[in-house]
Amino acid sequence: xxxxxxxxxxxxxxxxxxxxxxxxxxxxxxxxxxxxxxxxxxxxxxxxxxxxxxxxxxxxxxxxxxxxxxxxxxxxxxxxxxxxxxxxxxxxxxxxxxxxxxxxxxxxxxxxxxxxxxxxxxxxxxxxxxxxxxxxxxxxxxxxxxxxxxxxxxxxxxxxxxxxxxxxxxxxxxxxxxxxxxxxxxxxxxxxxxxxxxxxxxxxxxxxxxxxxxxxxxxxxxxxxxxxxxxxxxxxxxxxxxxxxxxxxxxxxxxxxxxxxxxxxxxxxxxxxxxxxxxxxxxxxxxxxxxxxxxxxxxxxxxxxxxxxxxxxxxxxxxxxxxxxxxxxxxxxxxxxxxxxxxxxxxxxxxxxxxxxxxxxxxxxxxxxxxxxxxxxxxxxxxxxxxxxxxxxxxxxxxxxxxxxxxxxxxxxxxxxxxxxxxxxxxxxxxxxxxxxxxxxxxxxxxxxxxxxxxxxxxxxxxxxxxxxxxxxxxxxxxxxxxxxxxxxxxxxxxxxxxxxxxxxxxxxxxxxxxxxxxxxxxxxxxxxxxxxxxxxxxxxxxxxxxx
Length: 548
Known about the structure:
The protein is of the alpha/beta class.
């Protein structure tokens, strides 16, 4: 077979497999022997349908055993997988338009959809100009395997900074990154992984699905809605499991929702790794979670802050040293590209982290030799430790580009390296990530990051971080900030305008928009800032009210 990631299909371990969460609180188990047979028979049906090595097959399925079997069935057929999110909380028409945009770029030979999603998929195919109807997952009479094409998968970015774009992930990219994940996580042969992350997102797909399955480790797999309804169920997995990954909000959510009595009798001392990534890491969220689970044996040294992105397959850096994460607070008035970052305060995760929200960031570890990371200035010159610039990633995990010639405004692929469009710096050997360069504005020669403004505004108004989104507004000879708030109240607006005036100066125009349902998010929960701004400027944001 072409890749070690598919080898398990030839030699499955019937003593291990996947435990899939059920809606009644239980688990269904299927061993790797049964999964491999089903995947190869699915490959047979796909080949009968005309799928050939190198073809793209788009898959729209919920997280279940059919999804697992179909995913690896596409691989066994030699094709490239493109997983597309189910609709979740999106409006039907918006969801169809989103899927159609992916299909137009991916140009799949087949679109696979479950019965309950077939109508959406069919409408999206029609909008994308693709003939035919969605293919229902099924198995053929015989097992089959074909040689693989060059691309393992198309990983569509979630669209926080524009239209979705398909990242071309080669087999070499995927193998290198899966090896990096397993090595830095300290994954051992008998370790168990537990995850509720969606499979269409790179952290859930590559980090907590493909990597353990390729190594035939035991996997406990939940759907995101299982986690939202009962976060304690996820924590209870770690009486057995040793590894997981989740965004910061998940740890804070557990701290709010889970009561200590729900964890009585648990022994969490075997929990080796709790990776944190996908969004800026809030040390307060980690600290409150640690306080919930430490009485049951969890160590805050198991936290693994990490940085990654789809364009680098997934993982770039992870703090893989057994120690509490390091949090720092840079001077916001001294953030300027190419200039030193002045650290006002720093501390390892602990009591000082309570309340450390706005302005604090957490170290994401030291790069491995096979994933070189550099910080560069606006001219592309490499900068030393402590200087702010753009993060650039090389090595075997750096993907070759976007599919079908698509381009992004911030992320670029140059000379085998990925210029990420993210701002960051090195401090005490660790990479610290400030956020998207496109999600900032230059004020008096320095960068002001909208995520930092959001956090401060959310704290001062009491609205909460999830109900405030700030967007940098470009303009000829003038800078601006648009602030979207999901509320009808406007009493807080004068104080916020004054705070922004003091922070940004009188030359930055501030637009405040209030209303219900204003904030649009990607499938991974990130605000779609540019999309929101474009809808607002085009007069398409229903219910929006601009405050004078």
